[in-house]
Amino acid sequence: MCVACLYALTALRVSPASEGAEEPGLLPPTRLQIVEEIRDRPHDFELRGNSRQLWEQVAKSYGFEVVFDGDYQPLDNLRFAMRGTRFTEAMAALEAATASFLVPVSGNMGLVARETPQKRQELEQQMAVSVPLPEPVAVQEAQELARGVQQLMEVQKFSIDSAQRLAVLRGPAAKVIPALVLFRQLLQPKADVVVDVDFVQVSETAERQLGLTLPTSTMVSWLVKPAVSGSSTATSLLNLGQLAWKNTFLSLAVGSAEAIGQFSNREGRTLLRSQIRGTSGQPATIHVGDRYPVMTNGYFGATTGTGTVYTPPPTVNFEDLGLVLKLTPLVHDSRELSLAVEAEFKVLTGQALNGIPVISSRKFVTGCRLKDGEWAVVAGLIRASETRALTGVAGLSTLPVLGRLFRRVDTTKDKGEVLLILRPRIVTRAPIDGLASVDRFWTGTAGRPRSAY
Predict the structure, then answer these.
(1) Burial class (CB in 10 A: 0-12, 13-18, 19+), 197
(2) Which of 85, 165, 226, 312 is surrounded by the most beta carbons within 10 Å?
(3) Among 426, 419, 421, residue whose Cα is nearest residue 376
């Protein structure tokens, strides 16, 4: 869609009413009608004189005439020399050399004025343009694009009509035309990307119990000497010894003792394969796991009396446990794209605070630039814990060598790692394929915008 096709309104010129026409029509801004052969042919200039003379000689070389503003004061003793210069380059260089600018007034005549903000505002051609919004583009997105283009190009007015789905630009032609081209390119449909996601979770738990467990307590029992030998239950006890004193027996019971040497090792792997489809520049999210209810508010008051007291239901929030993956692709061209990755892994710790379970969260944020179909491995979601418990006789268990006979050591190691393997693929190409197909043109500087010839 060319720029000329988008012109809807202009306050510059009114076409003469033709026979049978009720109202005159509005025309685009005036442009110099330079012969294409002369416009594109390189010219050589070696000129001397004041700024008025330079403008007249250069304009004559391209086949048009110039008139000067009433307040124009020419600069003297100027030299203008260029080799192999085309029309637009010559006009830009001449405006910079003479501190002036050119405004077309007809197809073969232009007005030259001094380069000042006041003259720019008085003489520059003003235009208004309406652009229909494509159906896939939301009004909110178009408003954000319009604000960005307006701030960049300093357009006086850039508004979005949500009812008619139109964007309206108004301002100097030198700023509206490049702003229109930029806004049109930003409205182009974006590429679609499919990301293959492989979620691999590896866990390993090792437990070791090694040592001796000695009795740390004993039981003393007072037993009455039986009248008939062998009829007492005292003989069924496991006694360390019996001490007799008159008709009373003292019994010492031996506690349990054991030697332990156990090893346990457990490994697990979880593999999940999925796909995410998104649009370039827009985030896409996937959740792998469960939604766990966590009570955040409840009623725990006491009830007195025989009446029935209403108990309000508790307030519950659902936490996403497992992996929450957020991917934002950005397509550069048909071969490369960038991928912003934000991964969060949440699990229950098995602990609670005031009845509310404690959730462990690990987050990983990164970005990478890949070719179409290239794999990327995202690592870093790693956990590791080690617990060591020592049980034994106080004092004896800490001896350098013999202490192993009086203690027991329980060791537990828990390791886990989560790997994300990503492969983005561009499935729908954008109409504008990267920077190679973007329209490029010189717009001038902030203080000296390029004139629309």
Answers:
(1) buried
(2) 85
(3) 421
